[in-house]
Amino acid sequence: MPAVGDSVADAVRRASDIIDIVSETVSLTRRGRKLWGLCPFHGEKTPSFTVDPEQQLFYCFGCHKGGNVFTYLMERDHRTFPEALELLAERAGISLGRDAGDRSRMDRRERLYGVLRELQAFYRAGLGRHPEARRFLEQRGLDAASVETWGIGYAPEDWTAGSDWLRRHGFSEREMLEAGVVAERPSGGVYDRLRGRVTFPILDPDGRVVGFGGRIIGDGEPKYLNSPDTTLYKKGRILYGAHLARPHLKDAMAVLVEGYFDAIALHRAGVKTAVAALGTALTEEHARYLKRFTTRVMLAYDNDPAGREAAGRAFPILARAGITVFQVEAYGEKDVDELLQAKGREAVHALIEEPVLYLTRRIQERAQDVRRDPAVKAAALRDLRPLLLAVDDPVERQGQIELLQRLWAVEPKIVAQALRRGQDRVPNNGQNIRHNMVRQPEKIGLNRDEVNLLAGLIRFPDQMEGVLTSLPELCKDARWRAIAETWDWRDSMPTADWVGSLPEGARELASEALLSDAPVSADTLTDLARALGQRWQESRWQDLMRRAASGPRDPALEEEIRELWPHIQEAKKRPRREG
To answer: Which domain holds residue 315?
Structure first.
């Protein structure tokens, strides 16, 4: 990662108003000195996301993400810190003044972009010289305008035509390998990854080529071949067509398909919000990207068993991100591309404009079978359990549960038991229990106590040493350890910079504490620390007793219980502060 002097980063941050950046994707309303809006990082209907213009910090009281303007861009756009810094510096008109090493690293990325741009030009020219490839695209319904819009090209059969072209334009084999456009021969040298294929440039949301996909003409395997993950291209982050769909996605329904031709077909039919995941199943990062723009996604996967299975995997990922998931009704063709070719734009629009909730259709299509056979009903309920639990909106989840009870003739208590089993299942493997015992001390107390305690310490910073002495358990938590380690020099920098310097968990805790209005006094800090320690011990005690009761005898576990018992007894005798 490029190392940039703190003074330059400070200047960029001071020149970048977090309100301007957040307002690009979030509608903010002022309440007092803060601004509030719906969180861009998780689904919600009541605003819990707040921005403080004075401290230049953001925080969500729902998902607990927080930080400064750099953090926000990194979370929102999945950028690295250097990428966020570079973007904000360019917006502010500030030169980063990088040293030779920094410039070399940034120049390396630009060289990789250059490899991909030059190869894209080569492929585009190659399509003009290959009539068979053009006929193939025409047979798939792509006219010249679509080919131009999507930058479709052709990679010749020759094993080194592309790499020879890149060499003549000054790029090295190492750069070609880093860009993912060639592969190494065992005997030495490189060869082109894509040969004899129609090519599809894969663009990032900013419209830069980061990789390629290739589709073979005629028969052959593999039918599709994609670039590998590289410095510039991560399959789990990039959605094909996002650069064209982004202007149309705000508050509209995104349509998610499986491949290049399906995404292009929908755009040709006028459905401008279509995107596709390529070379990988849908990921949480894909879902977070979509959630930045919309809370509704329609699955228009292939109309076959593999497509239905892929939709089943995609649903919980989208639902957990706070997205309401719809699906297209069954249709007569294999996919939406074939539907467009066979029946035209009207058929595609009719399919897209009559969405049905994904879970509703899953419940409806099993209704007849489950009523006939109790064993089928039990299996279907097991299959549906994780999908129901994935639904973030409690109102939507309850509606689906009521539909299931009515159509499947299942008593409410049976559904409730099934859902509890899904949530409460705990591994009884001795190794897992022992592993959890080691990790447990990292979870200290309740979040509200921690926030109030840190909020008080920020107001009365000289109390930190005494609190850490009275509550040594805090330093078992990596978040508090990071905060304590930076405590002595945090006053020497702007608050937003201190928060931005903390690791993720500590940053979120500090952001909430800084934006908290909790009325904590110097006199109550000791009581807060004591209450937090007592709650931690009680939580630890309950966990130990639960494990002792449910597993085989464990002398180490019994010894920890004996050591903790006097502290539990002492805490019970200690009078609680009133008010």
So the answer is: 239-354
